[in-house]
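tool=predict chain=A
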Amino acid sequence: DLDKVVGLNLSISGDTPEVYGVQMGFQGGGNKVAGVQMGLIYNYALDAFYGLQTSPARNFADTQYGIQFGGWNVANDMWGAQVGWLRNQAGSGLGLMLGTINVSEARMRGIQIGFLNKSAGDMSGLQIGAVNICRGTLKGLQIGLANLAGPNGLLPFSIGLNAGF
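tool=predict ok
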């Protein structure tokens, strides 16, 4: 087993503690990854990820700095962008979530664009979708067919446009 890879890491199912460069394979992962992960099924970084994770199936990072692009993207803390054809999920997010379903479990600061956008905590920014939900304090705009705003929304429920300040 290698503790650190600098450069190119090719594997069927990689689990390298530290990767700096490009990791490609069926499944790629490690504790700390900086660069590009390209996996057919799954990419993961158990600690921090810096760069681009791309997989048609699933990407995971404890703390993400950069872009996750794939089917189902998950980060406990997201700093950057998640672009997913199925679901984007973050504990807390700062940046852009673009996908069919976008979920922030704590706080979201930025933009959510999708069919369903949900912030379980505070939302600062913009939600554009068919259904937009903010359970916490809304500081920004919701544009969609059904908008549910937290305690400070202009309306608790609206069609078309809602705001909170």
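Strands lie at 4-13, 16-104, 108-119, 123-134, 138-148, 157-164. Residues 153 and 164 are 4 Å apart (CA to CA).
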